[in-house]
Amino acid sequence: MRYATYATCVLLFVVSLAMAAWHSGGWWIAAAMFALLSALGTVDLLQKRSTLRRNYPLLAHFRYGLESIGPEMRQYFIESDTAEVPFSREQRALVYQRAKSVNDTRPFGTLQDVYGADYEWINHSLQPTHPASFDFRIAIGENSAQPYSASVFNISAMSFGSLSANAIRALNRGAKLGAFYHDTGEGSISPYHRENGGDLVWEIGSGYFGCRDDNGGFDLERFTRNAREPQVKMVEIKLSQGAKPGHGGVLPAPKVSAEISVTRGVPMGIDCVSPAQHSAFHTPVGLLEFVAQLREASGGKPTGFKLAIGHPWEWFGIAKAMRETGLLPDFIVVDGAEGGTGAAPAEFIDHVGVPMHEALMLVHNTLAGLDLRNRIRIGAAGRITSAFDIARTLAMGADWCNAGRGFMFALGCIQAQSCHTDRCPSGVATQDPSRWKHLDVPDKAVRVFNFHQNTLKALRDLIAAAGLTHPGQIGPEHILRRVSPIEVRSLAALYHFLEPGELLHHVPDHAVFKAFWTEARSDSFAAPERVRRMRDSKSL
């Protein structure tokens, strides 16, 4: 059906040409018209810059006709076919412009309501700076054998299997061009991750794909073999993800192709199950021992974990275990509930997990309160698409940011929300070769590179206007938020920030710490006794 319009025009051209030769007259006009349409469709099929045109010859021009009017009309066209879209038209238009290196300046001031609640901005300085470079970096694992200098903006976890082969190729080539990292997602390191040599962060999920034994448990020997590859720069244990924390997942047997079978180390013809929890550890102390084990087996590469915050006592248990054992991760990635590029049940997408800002604040405050913040780096992910998103996230305690959907948009994703149907129109989130082979890797890799570079250039300009020289200098006092039409607060005034070492001396006067800190345990993820009693009495 994707080629029906093109095929129909070719057929009508042949018919019109025959009728014109037989009857002459107006049939020549029809033949000329269908000849032009057939030629345009043929060009669509042969060109490589637009995946949509290759997958939908002629039909794609309806979209591009509206796009020529402007980004707002283009986004209106996209939204008209979707019941609900998680990104605003302005956010997506900005990504597309930066990926294509289109001038993103605009006339007539802000599109935002500056007097509406939640409007945010960064204060500027009367003494702006002039940073020499926009290649902002953060050192991770400084005390490990192989520390890594990471960009402050990287590609978040998206697995081969969820994304197509050519999407993975383009992302990794873009990461190579821009010297930033590409998180593999829990689907392991595929051949397509390896082709272009871009930096990888290997994510280890509960399925232990790429490092599992025949029973689905963790296999240290297989892990060591992959983790010591020079292309792997860091190792990340995934505890939970923003899209569906606490859920796990299943890749149905028909989708377990030969490539996925080899990449993940699972048999073909059988459902590929990613359990909801890990089997290699069962307590906070066990998690940290697993981190230390993987760091050693990898040859001393920075090792940490990613989580979406849920029950606060579970996170507090991990934090207490760090202080008690001295076993520290090199980094923690906080995944917000609003994050996630893959398909998930509607209730999980909308109502499970803590949003990124609150989750990030809790992690940052806990580490600061235990006087560990300067020894552990924090990354953050969750709907980050612009330089201001990065600045605001760093102001709230992160050291760097990851993005998933932003880079998918750079690949050409139009947010058709058909990721789970295997009919992605842009060839990004599909395993159908008739679709993904039309995604041109060299062209899309440049767009991934452009999006990264232009976003960091915008970040450089933001911090320069604020009188700073590095994003790491952004503090909560720099970001302002309107909380009502007549009231403005800085993030420093809106959020409670713990002093270094504060938790070592007393429980802060902060609701979540007062409720759960004292009873959290380093030897168990179980709910505190008080919480269990309240559950039993139906008080919760």
List the helices and strands and how they pair.
Layout (H helix, E strand, L loop, with lengths): L3 H20 L3 H20 L4 H5 L4 H8 L3 H10 L8 H11 L20 E3 L14 E4 L7 E4 L1 E3 L9 H14 L3 E2 L7 H4 L5 E5 L15 H8 L4 E7 L10 E3 L6 H7 L7 E3 L9 H14 L5 E5 L4 H14 L5 E5 L10 H6 L4 H14 L7 E5 L5 H9 L4 E4 L1 H7 L21 H4 L4 H25 L13 E6 L2 E4 H4 L16 H6 L12 H8 L4
Parallel strand pairs: 4-13, 5-6, 6-7, 7-10, 10-11, 11-12, 12-13
Antiparallel strand pairs: 1-14, 2-3, 8-9, 14-15
Helix pairs in contact: 1-2, 4-5, 5-6, 6-16, 6-18, 7-18, 11-12, 15-18, 16-18
The structural class is: alpha/beta
Detail the poorly predicted runs. Answer: 66-85
Task: Profile the largest sheet.
Answer: 8 strands, parallel
CATH topology of the domain at 137-493: TIM Barrel
Helix proportion: 40-55%
Note the beta-strand portion: 5-15%
CATH superfamily of the domain at 137-493: Aldolase class I
Radius of gyration: 25 Å
Number of helical segments with 4 or more residues:
21
The CATH top-level class label of the domain at 137-493: Alpha Beta
Instruction: Give the rounded overall mean pLDDT.
Output: 87
Report the CATH architecture of the domain at 137-493: Alpha-Beta Barrel
Strand order of the largest sheet: 4-13-12-11-10-7-6-5
**Shape call:** globular
- State the total count of DSSP E strands: 15
